[in-house]
Amino acid sequence: MYFCSPFLKPRRMNIIIAGDGEVGVHLAQSLTELDHNITVVDPHSELLKRLESETDLLTITGDSTSPQVLKDANVADCDLFLSVLHEESINLVTCILAKKLKAKKTVARITNAELLSPKHREMFRDLGVDEMVCPERIAAKEITNLLNNTVTTEFFDFSGGLLTMYVIRLDAGSPVSGHNVKELTQLHPDLQVRVVALLRNGNTIIPHSDTVFQGGDLAYIIGRANQMEAINRVVGKQTVSIRNTMIAGGGRIGRYAAMTLQDKMRITLIEEDRRRAEELSALLDDTLIIHGDATDIELLKEEGLQNADAFIGVTDSSETNVLTCLHAKRLGVKRTIALVENTGFIDISQDIGIDTIINKKLITASYIARFIVKGDAVSSKWLSGTNAEVFELMVGKWSPATRKPIGELDIPQGATIGGIIRGRETLLPSRELQLKQDDKVVIFTLPKAMAQMAKLFD
So what's the pLDDT on residue 150? Predict the structure, then answer.
């Protein structure tokens, strides 16, 4: 066990989460393992009663725009204030009030990505909103990345792409099935990657050298950005060329995705609301807008679904998104992506054949987690289908992690180091490698190990 003096031990943070339903509750539940003082403010008393019965969190029923409610939540002692209600304007007002009442840092969930421009960011910072997260914009960016990297079910860059996390489902006939991690390294010595986890039958496994790959495993792999082709060859995957894409749903995610992709491929967008379809037609010059119901399979066929390379279901209905993606798969569409708002559906949706699930609750939690786990967290991603998180952490000057080689560090069960970024150099971990101050370390961790890993690198 490493020695950590009281001066080096991270202080417990006082965190207030203002929500109006599942997003705030999901975020609170996700953070219960991190050993901070968390208070949830929500207008739904029944929801808070259930949350109190399941956790040790403090809950307050009330309107987060009420100064008295914020004072009751001890906002003056708040290190981090998160407002994640569905209404953007309420989140902004709530954060402004919280800042005026002495909250140290505020984060607001927004829906209008225009507010993320430097001009607007600066204006809202002056008003008291320190950070803004737009899950819809992040979701659209993820969709773009996934269509450019068609073998992965999830994809995430660290330090501007110096290291990348690939999540790949192993087919039953994959060349690596039946081999263990050590054999993978021996058979492919030039493969510069590290397998940090396997998701198997709903269970997350942190693999060791003797862990055997099985068909159906979801493999979490961290490697350099130029390793995609080599990974595909080793696991027996082929990259799919995406030229034609159909999007069901013209809300913010569908719109942002179409705006990004329409210059690169042919886009057809199906929108049920006539007024919104007309607005999209005026906005998206190079996208074919179809006014119609995405559940009308005959309509989708008439518009060429069977000829699409990718189908993206991002309507307001998770059921519609899942069902239309399944129809697309049956018609031979190579790549399917569905927006699923109920986190309980994620495992089922992936098991029945949908390539990638996007969830706005996980997106919001991923963005916010970097402010909670450690002040020096550079980036983070909460992963679909598992309660694990991938963090990019900066090694502090007095970090216990700099005192011994990696092989001698007290890394807790349920966590592993995936890679190191030293300046512009990328390194894969080895037992002999010793970390240095200002190294960026990519770690994969389950909730039970998050707090200890954060302390190790502080």
Answer: 77
- In which element (H, E) is residue 454 found? helix 447-457
| 88 in Cβ contact with 111 (< 8 Å) | yes
Residue 249 makes CB contacts below 8 A (sequence gap 6+) with 270, 271, 294, 312, 313, 314, 315, 316, 321, 339
Residue scoring higher pLDDT (450 or 427): 427
CA–CA dist 66, 74 (Å, integer): 13
Task: Tell me the pLDDT tens digit for each residue of 29-38.
Answer: 767 666 788 8
Whose structure tokens read 């999209």?
280
Q: Check: CB of residue 255 under 8 Å from CB of residue 247.
A: no
State residue 302's pLDDT score.
Answer: 94
Residue 125 pLDDT greater than 90, yes or no: yes
Give pTM, 2 decimals. 0.82
Asked if 29 and 55 touch (Cβ cutoff 8 Å), the reply is yes
The band of 8, judged by pLDDT with boundaries at 50, 70 and 90, is very low
- Judged on CB neighbours under 10 Å (0-12, 13-18, 19+), 330 is exposed
Q: How many helices (H) and strands (E) does the chain have?
A: 15, 22
| CA–CA dist 262, 281 (Å, integer) | 13
Contact 309, 335 (CB under 8 A): yes
The C-alpha angle 259, 265, 268, rounded to 5 degrees, equals 70
**Which three-class secondary structure string do you get for 363-406?**
HHHHHHHHHHHCCCEEEEEECCCCCCEEEEEECCCCCHHHCCEH
Q: Which residues pair with 269 in a beta bridge?
A: 247, 289
Angle between helices 135-148 and 252-261 (to 10 degrees): 40
Q: What residue type is assigned to position 387 of the chain?
A: N
Q: Tell me the β-bridge partners of 266.
A: 244
**What pLDDT shows up at residue 11?**
56
What radius of gyration do the chain's Cα atoms show? 23
**Whole-number pLDDT of residue 338:** 94
Q: How far is it, in rounded angstroms, from Cα 243 to Cα 162?
A: 27
Residue 194 token pair: 């590290």
Residue 443 CB burial class (10 angstroms; 0-12, 13-18, ≥19): buried
Q: Considering only 50-59, 162-171, 265-274, which range has the smallest mean pLDDT?
A: 50-59
366 vs 421: which has the higher pLDDT: 421
Please name the residues in contact with 50: beta carbons below 8 A apart, sequence gap of 6 or more.
none
